[in-house]
Amino acid sequence: MSEIIAPVLATENPDQFAKIEKVDRSGSLPTKKDLTRFYELDLLAKYFREEKPEYRTIALQFPDELVCDSALTSQILNKLINEGVVELVDKKRIIILADTSYSPCCVDEVAGKHVNADVIVHFGHACLNPIEDTPVVYVFGHFDLDIDSVVGLFETQYDNREDKIVLMADNTYSCHLEEVYSRLKTKYTNLVLTWISLPQNSDAVIIPALNNDPRHVCGSTLIPNRQYPEFKGDEEDFSEYHCFHINTPPASLTLHLSTLFASFSIYNPARDNIITPRTALQKRYKYMNIARTASTIGILINTLSLKNVREVVKKVQDWIIASDKKHYTFVVGKPNVAKLANFEVVDIWVVLGCGVGGMIVDCEDFYKPIITPYELNLALQQDVMWTGKWLIDFDVALRLSQNEYDLDDQDNDENDDGSQSDSKDDVDAPVFDPVTGRYISTSRPLRRPQYISIEEDTCNESSNGENGALAAATSKELATRLSSQMIIKNTVSTSSEFLINKRLWKGLGSDYQEQDDEGFYDKEGALVEEGIGGIARGYKHADSDRV
């Protein structure tokens, strides 16, 4: 019996595509009692039975590290909620959401709408960003913490008892903050405790309920979702304070907090030690300077569920247009190198999404840099005035830019009397790349003088025809000239300019266009012949039976 030959496109080891990442279960499996305590299932079931009985379909969202508990947790919660309910119609549905289409710290409203969920329960660490429509319940989880070890390492780290220190923690460890604070406040005179704070425009619920009012407004807008009523200093300046953070925050939040405080220390519960993170602020400054000379900016929208994302998109587009630059808008979900590499025309990307889990701080693997709206706002200013802070909140970036553009509008109103807002010298001023030092001629491709000069040229050419033949020739020349200058109805088409001047391959039929321009185009064309057919593993040729 002859050996069967594998197809051409088959792989020698097809099992590698069926690999599933295994969950580490080296320790003992959690019991039902452990899961009920960790996920606060008794309080959660009481909330749905007594306070919100109208919720019929409940969706559960777990992060990647907790999804291993999802099946048993849903069974326990289903039993607690529907206990004593006889009729099937009256029972509530418990649904587990699959992998998130966005950052795991954000509520996946899109997945919830796919199953017609009345409410989404988000477990684990959360960014607390408000979403559009679906009600949300946050359960951070009851993570264990060695209080004695935290206090001992804290005293070792800060030997000066008069240091100004802000005590913070991840959402998942926030339940231990008050106990840590109570043991340290008698020894440190300038210790500040932070509490979790929901945005004012959020209707979400936190279980178990916090001791403080989660919507109490007292704190800096620079630190997201935190309040500190006992803070006595300037709420916008923490340069004299040190920050002690329990558990490692996301990379974007780490960089943000490290630029606000005099020092930033992190306690790692898994390793029981204190680390000082290394920041990449110099790289972010480099990317911001690259954006200053970029001609085409790609706007990445990671999610449309956030309440203010549409306002931010419109504002960012206004910034780019006012700076005479081009922009393209993409909705990509989770961005990766392969997705963004498809768009060669984009010089730099600006990501709009969650400020905690959606910002890509380390973008060295990407072909083009990725910046934040705050960095883009700095890059598009005439003079860069960076205070050294790296902000991640959209609202703060919008407020910082509003004063600048209001002043620009006032200048434009004053110049309506007859003076021009930009002199010719300013418009024609050379632009140099601050990173490489090279001259850049395409940093502002949509400058108004380019429109005017090209429109005048085309009008002059079209008015010089004296007879029919000359008019026809002029029409022919005009079409060729318009093709080279990318004018479509007196409008500059920058995308066509890129396609013709920078693309090596312009698509099928481009060779006929060149022949037409040179006058060698054969109108009759060639005979249509049958080509090869079949599939990739064996094409069939028309002239023979070979494959």
Describe this protein's structure:
α2 packs across α3 (70-81) and α14 (448-462) packs antiparallel against α15 (468-485). The protein is built from 17 helices and 20 strands. The model is unreliable at 6-10, 417-425, 449-459 and 461-485 (pLDDT under 50). The two termini are 23 Å apart. The protein folds into four domains: 32-139, Diphthamide synthesis DPH1/DPH2 domain 1 (Rossmann fold, 3-Layer(aba) Sandwich); 147-202 and 209-275, Rossmann fold (3-Layer(aba) Sandwich), CATH 3.40.50.11850; 290-414, Rossmann fold (3-Layer(aba) Sandwich); 448-518, no CATH class. The protein has helices spanning 32-38, 41-51, 70-81, 109-114, 147-157, 177-184, 251-258, 281-292, 309-322, 337-340, 373-379, 394-414, 424-427, 448-462, 468-485, 494-501, 510-518; strands at residues 57-61, 93-96, 119-123, 136-139, 165-169, 191-193, 195-196, 205-206, 226-227, 242-246, 263-268, 273-275, 296-301, 326-331, 348-352, 370-371, 431-432, 439-440, 533-535, 538-540. The strands form six sheets. It has a five-stranded parallel β-sheet, with helices on one face. β17 (431-432) and β18 (439-440) form a beta hairpin. The protein is globular, with a radius of gyration of 31 Å. With 547 residues, it is an alpha/beta fold.
